[in-house]
Design brief:
about 210 residues, mainly alpha, about 75% helix, disordered C terminus
Amino acid sequence: LAGISRLDLEISGYLGYRLSSYLIVLLIAALEALGISLIYLPKIVAGALLSIHVAIIAWIFFTTDDDRTLGSALLRTGLAFPAAVAMYSACWFMGFIGYTLAISILTLAIYVTEAFLATGRRRGIIILFILLTLVYMAHPFALTFWLLWCLSRGLASLITWVIRSEWKQFLLLPLTFLPILLYDYLMRSSPGPTSGPILNFASFFVDT
């Protein structure tokens, strides 16, 4: 049986939910170049997602702890495994691949946000914007957790009166999120497959 199928396809330029697809396409190209069967693709994807998550958690513990002994390193790595095991089953479902990747990047974004609030270095804003963009590309819903974290972090800063030294950093945080919000609004309000509700808490839950 042979033939040609002609379908009217419209490829959307919307970046939301696309990061995992881009990475998988690159992975498929790499496997084909190396002569590795695509039958191993699901296992490789699941293993890569778990490895990324463990590496991020272990690195955060390593950079925030002055104890650099082997026992401490093993303890930090061990603390990363429960979350990785909990994510294991989700990695095998296509619908959760982007979400698990987004949560891993989000963890790093929260760490960078906390470091920026403490130091106020302008470089932190640039890095944070890149990380939040990657989170959005992996799964827009995950940005909700960053907004909730910022809200709770700001409340804690007010209660402890640390806001006196952090208020300037808090005022700069919207600069990392507003461009993403504007992009999402423009893409969803335009006619085509990207049209839909604006990116907000309501649309987060509707989309998922």
